[in-house]
Write a structure and sequence with these properties.
411 residues; Rossmann fold; 3 domains; five-stranded parallel beta sheet; 18 helices
């Protein structure tokens, strides 16, 4: 196992080298640039470093550089500056120690750490990417065949980039910002979560969390205040994904334009620490990109989410019921499918798509619960035709009331 000592402290470097002679130690000089060159040229397994070596109070820059080449689980951080640094690092790294009270006085701690890391390296020399939870969740999605194909290509690109990093052949990280264009309820947020999980699983982004915002989360009430509000969300999304729903609404006025200016700059400045996904209806998103050339040059991927077909909605209903641990008898399933078909024959699509089917199943479940309580039914998982018929009746009644209000001018 090859270990780089990037501490700038001779006592630490010598102490580790004398104590652990079974490993190959390489001492980096005090330059972060030289350390990065070393990581590019050699395949390193572990880094032992300090916040001082990584830049003192600006240690994040040095840490991110190392994290580009070494998985954070294989970075041992010795903390010299106690100003909240240890707590921050401990939330992201498994091995963080106080350099004065722990590191030099308890080298036996590191013996266990090295054994653990060495064992993990042997077990993970060849990663089976098909076993990643994020890829499995992508494959489970109903419909969205063209979207899933594009997402797999993005994932494959990142996988190859990670292989290049391990072999010291990594180039500058590309931009991975994208737009999700399509009607409401077609799985845009779900796919964004899957991508964020993937980035975290393969260590492309340090945390891989998803920050969801809309116009109200970025735009302030007064001119001049929006920049700070947008920056707060950008900082929150660093090391993860910033998902902006109905992003086209930012182009309505000067307030939104102020947010756009901040986003465009952040997409360039933080290209290696954050992925921005902007979502919305196709025509509105097209207009947003056309009037903002900065977005066009920074968004290499545009994914188009189609309406679900009636057959996909039926499959989605089965999936939702499975999640809720419910089952339909054959007659109930037939009635539900006929209801979906009827709506499609009238509209050629269902507004709300997946969101509509989830809401419909919840209505069915409410009717089921009412029946169970009123009849003392023992089978609490079965959905019957009675439950579905009553849910359809309520939905039809609601649609008629809405139509009547529109005719007489209420909405």
């Amino acid at each position: 196992m090859k270990i780089v000592m990037a501490t700038g402290n001779d006592n630490i470097d010598n102490g580790f080298g004398i104590r652990f002679k079974e490993y190959e130690f390489i001492v980096a000089n005090s330059s972060l640039y030289a350390t990065e060159t070393l990581l590019k040229e050699q395949q390193i397994d572990v880094i032992v470093t300090t916040d001082t070596f990584c830049g003192g109070k600006n240690w994040r820059k040095g840490f991110q550089m190392m994290n580009n080449y070494i998985h954070r689980k294989n970075i041992i951080f010795l903390v010299e500056d106690k100003e909240n640094t240890r707590d921050i690092l401990a939330s992201h790294l498994p091995y963080v120690y106080d350099i004065k009270t722990e590191a030099l006085e308890a080298l036996n701690i590191f013996e266990r750490i090295f054994i653990t890391i060495e064992s993990n390296l042997k077990n993970n020399e060849e990663v089976n990417y098909n076993e990643l939870k994020s890829i499995q969740n992508l494959n489970k999605l109903i419909g969205l065949s063209s979207v899933k194909e594009q997402v797999r290509k993005i994932m494959n690109f990142i996988i190859v980039e990670k292989i290049k990093q391990r072999k010291g052949k990594s180039e500058e990280r590309p931009m991975l910002h994208m737009t999700f264009e399509g009607p409401a309820g077609t799985g845009k947020t779900t796919v964004a979560r899957i991508l964020a999980d993937f980035y975290e699983e393969v260590n492309y982004l340090e945390v891989g969390h998803l920050v969801e915002v809309s116009r109200s989360g970025l735009v302030a009430n007064y001119l001049g205040q929006t920049a700070n509000k947008t920056q707060e969300k950008i900082q929150e999304a660093l090391d993860g994904v910033l998902f902006i729903d109905e992003a086209y609404s930012l182009s309505r006025d000067k307030y939104g334009e102020e947010a756009i200016d901040e986003l465009i700059k952040a997409m360039e400045d933080h290209r290696d620490k954050m992925v921005v996904i902007m979502a919305g209806y196709p025509k509105e998103m097209e207009k947003l990109l056309q009037i903002n050339s900065g977005f066009q040059s920074r968004i290499p991927f545009r994914l188009h989410f189609p309406h679900y077909t009636q057959y996909e909605l039926s499959e989605l209903a089965n999936l939702v019921m499975k999640e809720k641990k419910l089952e339909m008898n054959s007659q109930a399933k037939k009635i539900m499918d006929e209801h979906i078909y009827t709506i499609f024959s009238q509209q050629q699509k269902i507004e709300g798509n997946g969101r509509w089917i989830r809401n419909f199943i919840e209505k069915v479940q409410f009717e089921q619960c009412t029946r169970i309580v009123e009849t003392n039914e023992e089978n609490i998982t079965l959905i019957t035709e009675e439950d579905v018929i009553k849910a359809i009746s309520l939905e039809t009644k609601k649609d008629k009331n809405t139509s009547l209000k529109r005719k007489i001018g209420f909405i």
